[in-house]
Amino acid sequence: MKAPVDGRLAALRGSGKRLDYNARSLAALENNPRCTLRALLDASGSNKAAIAAHVGHPPAFGQSVFAITRGNAFEAMVKDNGCAELLRVLRETLELTLPEVAYEDLNDVGGNGRSDKRYERTEEVLLRAARGDGEGTLFDHPMLRLLIGGHPAYLEPDLVAFRIDGRFHVMEIKSFPIIDGQADPTQVRAATTQACAYIIALRDLLGRAGIGAEAVSDTIVLVAPKDFTNRPTAAFVDARKQVAALTRQLSRIERIGELVDLLPDDLTFDLYLDEDEQPRRPPEELAETLDQVLKTYRPDCLNHCEMAFYCRSRARAEASLDVLGPVVREQFGGIDTTTMVMGLARGELKPSEDQVEMAAALRHAARLRAELEDLGGAA
Amino acid sequence: MRTDDGMTPDPSVPDPAAATEAILANMADGGHRAVVVDSPPGAGKSTLVVRAARELTEGGERPIIVAQTNNQVDDLVERLAREHPDIAVGRLSGSSYAPSAALNALTNAVVGRTLADLTGCRIIVATAAKWATVRDATFGWAILDEAYQMRSDMLLQIVERFERGLFVGDPGQLDPFTIVGTERWIGLPHDPTQNGVSVMLEHNHGIPVHRLPVSWRLPLTAAPTISRAFYPFTHFTAGTGADTRALEFRTTGFARTDLDETLAQAFTTGWALHELRRRHVPRTDTETLQTATDLAGRLLERGAVATCERHRSGRELQPGDIAIGVAHRDQADLVRAALVRTGSTGAPGVVVDTANRLQGREFEVVIVVHPLSGRRDATAFHLEAGRLCVLASRHRQACIVVAREGIADLLDSHPSTDPVHLSVRAKFPDGWEANQIMLDKLAQHRVAA
Amino acid sequence: MSTLSALAHVQAMESMRAVPLTEFRHRRLSSRPLVIIPLAMAGEAGAPLAAMVGTARRNGTLLVVAQPRNRDQRFAFAAGLGRIVMEYINSFRQDRSGEGERSRYTDTPQILVPNPGGVRTLADLGRMCRFRATTGPYAVPEVVPELGMWLTFLVDRAEQAGSSVLLPVTGMLAEHWATGQSTLENQNLASLMAWIAPPPGLSVEQAMADAENPDVCPPAGPSTSPEFDNRDLAPAIRNFDEASALGDPQALADAESDLRELIAGQIQPTWRMVWQAISLLRSVPEAPRAAKRFESDCRAFTAYSDYQDTGALPQRKRDTAIGAARRLGQLEHALAEFEADMAFDDRFVLADRRSAGEAFAGTVVEAEPGRMVTTDKNSRVPRPLVTVLTEDPLRLAADTKLISPSMPTGHKAKVVSVRRVGGTTRVTVEITGGMGRARVPKQGTVPELGQYVAYLPDPGWRPSPQFPASDATPWTHSAPDGNDTESAVPENTAAEEWGNED
């Protein structure tokens, strides 16, 4: 990425520590690639949660201690005794032949838990394996690196397996259940998004050593509790389409410069943190800044983006049809607000040339509703 | 005349006659309960069906043919009866069916309500829905036409009528669908909402799957793009050469220059993208639908002459040679109404239908209202590869796409939110990729309105 | 969605109150529904945490699993819930009417849960319980598998459009009222209720804000809020665990009652809100054809009840090929019927289709009541023509068969021609049925000049599909090695553990 853009992004973030892309911001990217505000906040590494909270709309992405405990306990159980349970599942459930199994823990490097050190170690071990002179077939918590918009995001898959059909496979260990072969599609989708980032990062790592993309499988192995038990089972997830989609969306981030160029020169999302990391910037001023950036609110953002409550409040204030979601919005073509819809429906606003047709449909619909309400429909 | 991306048919590609022989040999050797034939658009599927039926009767069989719509049944009966005048062909149909004049004129075609009416027939043809009402009869062979459009639960209703099956169809067209939103069968090998071919292949290993390698319908201008966009793993080529097909006008145009420019682009290159001003509009947008209508009207008004291997000295295009394809039924209704309003006597004869109903049909010129035109968001429905594939692969001469500017941006910022399921193979081609390839192609043939 | 329904949402957003989408409530509401509010523990595979259950606002029973990871406690919970649910279901297995084949119970149970997540939780509970063995090493009380089978029956039946044996209250509300928020937010019962009936003294805006604040409106389940889990529930469960480790009965009783109180505080607001929603829904008149769908529920309930009486096997984990195909046919049939019935019953739903051009209404401006035609069989029959003037953007083609909710039962017609004149449309229809057998149509069966009539397409009749016998799956749908002949009851059901035991 061009240096000036980088400098501009750093200025957008300001005094706060740079945040890397993570599972949630990748999901938000996939869910709403069109949103300029989200793109700028993520690309600049701004703290979206802190910004949203400061303008009075804190996100609600708390995680229950029960879920965390359960997740950790399950992962530990699957990996116990050199992944004994995992191997049983791979052999019995997925009917894989794993000729020889060597387990390699990449959790920390000689007591050094720094991401870059762990990344170097991972790189060395995986390249050796890929070239056929390593021992490992199961790599526990390798540290991968994905360059997003020129910045490294460190990613840590639960497990990468080598030599399932001679290829690396990303394995995700999740604590949501697989009941009779099916799992909650939302949860599977989230796990897949994460795994796709690992696949892309792994291909990047190998690619820089001249090893082709085919060395990493597009098929993810999802390991999760079977039915209502505490024992694991596994299933394949064909992630070819998701890998392609995420690759496309990551490549769009490279074009962030085009968005940055449209901003006023002095615009920043800086919270002006003091020594105690407390924001000193007046919230109204920050809100004004946010309002200068185009945002594309979709109700789905509530599931993915820290800014969603803020964006929804703006959409409501503007009487934007975005509040109602795409299915309702679609009916109104190019019209953006409830004010305009109702004005045309009541015949109070004169439609522009482009709106004539929509206005006729709206007036007809309004007449129908009036007819129904007059006839004393429901309360 | 014109080539597509400089690609020409590769003579080393398997020759279609050999493919047909291999299929018939598989059927004759008695070793398989089923033989599957994947056929890209216009690759001679009906020819194969007619040929296979004949071979079966010659081997002493009394085959049945299963098609999906009454139109398809009529077409097959007509072709069978005409090409094999020595064979009595039966058409099993419901009580409200009225045979066409063409069918009535054939002396060796018999229409019956029950099998008892057709005892003298060597080949019996009916829709899957009609076969589902037949009980207690079993035939040696069934030929299932457009088999990828038949749902697995329909196959289950008719499978007891035959011992062996030749499944013929186009895997690139629209998948069958259900209005019922349920996830309970996802991942099952016998998911009843899947197409019958996939389910049969899931349960039977070693079934030979053949592929017809040459499209006789799509011109050289279209085959490579359609193949790349919608059949990424199984390429096919055009059966006709660069100089075989041509379109020209009887008259010169001057009244509607925008339409004429688009028509000229389509006539010379086989494709045109008639691009309207960028706007978000509801799918019933009059300007878009009227433009599609006007293009058809203008084409008829100016009188186009088509030259091809069937009509080497040219033939004037008739309304029925032209189709307007859309995504939604309300759009089709509105275009039909607009054609009537033109006041032209020929215009109402232009075929207007949704992608679903245009499956398996063939025209000289097809005008497509792009499913993504004017939309803010692409839904899975509008992005479905099969929908665009059907619309863009019905033509023998040229395809004109009408769309509002903005599809490129829509694709560029399309969110990826489809649900992901365990143990289900991703369906290819991917709708996004296919749309992108088509759009790249169309961009080279863009005419701004 | 039609422009009309979309407009209703915009109206709601502009006026900041819910507006009606339908004239009627299309779901039957039992005079004695059983409300269940299930709560589950985060992160566990469908582990129940608590449930509040009862047939009246005043008699809710709160069942709590003090340590959801403890297997015995989960069983005790399932058995406790099972006894209440079975007592309720059994009370409907008393009164029968009709003889022989037609004999059936006259009423059905109806379980109401707050939201779609509640239905999924009951589905999981059903799956968890129905295979449990009542003898052997992990024996459970008989009521546990019985509950499992009945819940599975209800959940399966609930997939059928128009059925009312198990419904999420949010779904019923959103079917009748349009709000100025999205479908996603409408799944939050408190948010939805904020639009329809905000608490006294609160504006819709305030009620909406409260609805998303877990400290004011605890989530309606199945998940509790993470804040509550971390701040309140986790320490309370720890206290309970410590007390049980110490074996101090008083401490244990205290810890248990603390937990109950905490959970009661989370579940009771939802309980009250569900009952408030029920009384709101009662104030909406029930659609005429809901009775027909209720009949169908009664038949299904009777059939399943009789099967239970003759020693039922639990439902399979997944449908067989033939079972799945049969079910798909039933689901599609039910959905088509339900949509047709709603449009026929309900002027709002009809208006929806009018706004989409699929139906029309207007005044008769021309009539040829005495028109006769000669049929194929050479008989003379009345075929009156009437022309209706409508402002609806109609796009039905000639020959479309029509029915009419504004004419006597059995009225049939077809479109002859549609002519657009300016902003209005003149539709000429031929009356083809419902005029009686005489040569002169019966009084009132043909629309008269000046009469207001509405027409919509006849959904027609579709044959029910016939499949091979259940034990004879054909070659196209079964593997030769017979892998899918899996028995209804899986092996080692007794050994199937419930969640984490630590």
UniProtKB/TrEMBL annotation, chain A:
<protein>
    <recommendedName>
        <fullName>Secreted protein</fullName>
    </recommendedName>
</protein>
From TrEMBL, chain B:
<dbReference type="GO" id="GO:0043139">
    <property type="term" value="F:5'-3' DNA helicase activity"/>
</dbReference>
<dbReference type="GO" id="GO:0016787">
    <property type="term" value="F:hydrolase activity"/>
</dbReference>
<dbReference type="InterPro" id="IPR027417">
    <property type="entry name" value="P-loop_NTPase"/>
</dbReference>
<protein>
    <submittedName>
        <fullName>Helicase</fullName>
    </submittedName>
</protein>
<dbReference type="InterPro" id="IPR041679">
    <property type="entry name" value="DNA2/NAM7-like_C"/>
</dbReference>
<dbReference type="Pfam" id="PF13604">
    <property type="entry name" value="AAA_30"/>
</dbReference>
<dbReference type="InterPro" id="IPR050534">
    <property type="entry name" value="Coronavir_polyprotein_1ab"/>
</dbReference>
<keyword id="KW-0067">ATP-binding</keyword>
<keyword id="KW-0547">Nucleotide-binding</keyword>
<feature type="domain" description="DNA2/NAM7 helicase-like C-terminal">
    <location>
        <begin position="317"/>
        <end position="404"/>
    </location>
</feature>
<keyword id="KW-0378">Hydrolase</keyword>
<dbReference type="Pfam" id="PF13087">
    <property type="entry name" value="AAA_12"/>
</dbReference>
<keyword id="KW-0347">Helicase</keyword>
<dbReference type="GO" id="GO:0005524">
    <property type="term" value="F:ATP binding"/>
</dbReference>
From TrEMBL, chain C:
<feature type="region of interest" description="Disordered">
    <location>
        <begin position="460"/>
        <end position="502"/>
    </location>
</feature>
<protein>
    <submittedName>
        <fullName>Uncharacterized protein</fullName>
    </submittedName>
</protein>
